[in-house]
Amino acid sequence: MTIDWDEKKALLQEPNIAKVTQLCDELMEKKPGSTVPYIDPVHDEDECRIVTLQVSPGKGTESGFVSHNNDDEGARRATQIYEIAELDPRYVMPWNAYPWVRDPGLPSALSVQEKTDGLRPFRQFLKINSRVSAIIAHGTDASAFLTLFEKTYHSSLRNSGIKVYKASALGGRAFAVSETKQEELLTKSVETYKDAMQRAGIQHL
């Protein structure tokens, strides 16, 4: 399926995603010359119950979007998970612990400074998506970021009744394993999503 990204750009000011679009614009203004990929407008800030947290924008975000429709292995896996778990994308929204596009020469793990830079944007993102009841952290770096978030904002996730799930990263080294192991990881992720859906009262498609 070919995606018309220009068509998607035209939808960025629609009520279902406008505030998140504005947040991305503000973050780019704060770091002149930086890029923060927009969130695919298939998602919905009023309906969002689950946040899927990745570490930083990956290769596929060259499309200009954080999207499961991107052309990279992480995005393809996210699509598989949504399909198998029968999860409608409007109930979920992706975000990155460090939302700005990083220099490809940097180590894949985030620096303490990068994690710190991502805290406030994530807090703003959660304020927009006020009905979230679960966050699925993909990869150890995303989990570590949430631990720092809880420490910084005095357990604000726990106090808001948001459950944090730890899952494997959707691409890269996590999946540089045998096919059998890849299947296991995928199945485990699907189970995590199904549990989060049940918790949020989301109906299967």
Topology readout:
Elements: H1 5-9, H2 18-30, E1 38-39, E2 50-54, E3 65-66, H3 73-85, E4 92-96, H4 112-128, E5 134-138, H5 140-152, H6 156-159, E6 163-167, H7 179-200
Structural class of the helices, strands and pairings? alpha/beta
**Shape label:** globular
In CATH, what is the class? Alpha Beta
Q: Report, as a whole number of angstroms, the end-to-end distance.
A: 20 Å
Strand arrangement within the widest β-sheet reads 4-2-5-6
- Would you identify the CATH H-level superfamily? Uracil-DNA glycosylase-like domain
Q: Largest sheet at a glance?
A: 4 strands, parallel
* CATH architecture tag: 3-Layer(aba) Sandwich
Average residue-wise pLDDT: 94
Q: Tally the beta strands.
A: 6
Please estimate the helix content. 40-55%
The Cα radius of gyration reads: 16 Å
Compute the number of structural domains: 1
Quaternary organization: single chain
How many helices? The count is 7
What CATH calls the topology is Uracil-DNA Glycosylase, subunit E
SSE order, one letter for each helix or strand: HHEEEHEHEHHEH
